């Protein structure tokens, strides 16, 4: 495939054009935003989008903290929007986090507003985002986020904003894409932690319960658990019976294996029970957690074997992206720019090996991608004797 040559100075004065609602819209300036939880690979996407746009003669800016930079510009010394130049994105591919900042609070479609009586009501501020983009001469937006952020992106698209989404979540729960960036990094870290816990579990003859992220999907728990040779894996897709899990650990003791590793997804729940929720807050999704501690206590009570729990938490979000996630992030960012160049809008970039494709944002966010109980990794786990508490 021929290499794209660096544009000459004329490219800066002759922007690409796209068709929208029957009239020509010239792309001169685009914006990038990152919303929801952070994930390894965000900066790599920002770099790819910025470089690809500049090479097409477009100006690039970044929106601070999701859409907060547009909705609350006075809260920022730089006005909430920063220029993204080649220098600004130099050397950021390997960095975790996001140079733009992010937030999982204050959904602009249901923005919480404090009332005089101390209660809250929610209002739709999406129209303010559209007006702010016009005011700042933003012709298109590349929105990087998970299901919540991309649902917001779809609503903005339906109101007339030219927008392309890039799927980001360590949970890997976005449908229509084989993988989201950030997932491989989270699984790799969780697997390394399981490797380390094996030695201390064996030394103390303990049951080690490891709680991992993933919200309502068990992808991290399943992939890390199988790769890290866990003895039991509890995922949201299969309500578990704690007695069955305990039976597995007791069998191991009888076989001379006097320790066990149990991986628990934060969204796992017992049969007939509910998920463990740490916090409910207006304007954001419920915060899951605590199930690892509960399972460890129950296993110790049932088996009499000493049990400990470890919560990996936000360690799974931090650090440098793996090679897979770096490459995927760069591919997604470049593909988002190609989509805008070709006149596409209201789409999400999706991995469809060996290439990428574009799917409507509405379709991509219409359902959650959960673990199929007949997928090959599940079948492999059962063949290896791993218990799912069922």
Q: Report the total helices.
A: 11
Low-confidence runs of at least 5 consecutive residues? 1-24
- Class of the largest domain, according to the CATH hierarchy? Alpha Beta
**Average pLDDT reading:** 91
Structural class: alpha/beta
What is the CATH architecture assignment of the largest domain? 3-Layer(aba) Sandwich
- CATH topology group of the largest domain: Rossmann fold
Report on the architecture of this protein:
By secondary structure, this protein is an alpha/beta fold. The chain has 2 domains: about 10-180 and about 320-355, 3-Layer(aba) Sandwich (Rossmann fold), CATH 3.40.50.450; about 185-315 and about 370-385, Phosphofructokinase domain (Rossmann fold). The protein is about 35% helix and about 20% strand. It contains 11 helices and 17 strands. The strands form 5 sheets. The protein has a 7-stranded mixed sheet, with helices on both faces. A 4-stranded parallel sheet has the order 11-12-10-15, sandwiched between helices. A two-stranded antiparallel sheet has the order 1-2. α4 (about 145-160) links the parallel β8 and β9. The termini are far apart. Residues about 1-25 have low confidence and may be disordered.
Relevant terms:
390 residues, alpha/beta, Rossmann fold, 2 domains
What's the arrangement of secondary structure elements?
Blueprint: E1 17-20, E2 23-26, E3 29-34, H1 42-54, E4 59-63, H2 68-71, E5 81-83, E6 111-114, E7 120-123, H3 126-135, E8 140-145, H4 147-158, E9 163-167, H5 183-204, E10 207-212, H6 219-227, E11 232-234, H7 242-254, E12 260-265, E13 277-279, E14 287-288, H8 291-303, E15 307-311, H9 323-341, E16 347-352, E17 355-360, H10 361-364, H11 376-383
